[in-house]
Amino acid sequence: MRRLLAFLALLACASAHALSGVVTHVTDGDTLWVRPEGGAPVKVRLQGIDAPERCQAWGAQAREALAARVLHRQVQVRTRAKDAYHRTIGTVSLDEHDVAAWMVREGYAWSQRYRRSLGPYAAEEAEARRLLRGLFAAPAAIEPRQFRKAHGPCQ
Fold first, then answer.
1. What is the pTM of this model?
2. Residue 45 is among the residues annotated as catalytic for this protein
3. Based on the structure, what is the number of domains in the chain?
4. Which CATH number is 67's domain given?
């Protein structure tokens, strides 16, 4: 059993990488570019959240909030994988605070659902809903997943 646990811990460490750099661009409410010192910028998708699409209600506000929070600032990224759009998926931290958690807590994104799970930021989303923060104050706010299904991707 100890060997199995040691192997799983090693595997977890090997599958996650870290990078540190300055945010050079914010594409939308859940995607940004990080330039590591001496390296090329890396496109990063915030893991665990789904922000409104650029052409969707609250899309511009989500992008602006993320930019105000992290643009031109030093961040740390714990990477997990690449998505279908070749973005690095990762947890982004600013001054040791989870940026995705902040986006959800302030009402600029939803906790990304996984099958029957409410996602990793369910508590932050519940708080934002309770306090009617950001998009959670809008009774007709549509989750980006449903928006893309109905309207397709933004052009």
1. 0.87
2. yes
3. 1
4. 2.40.50.90
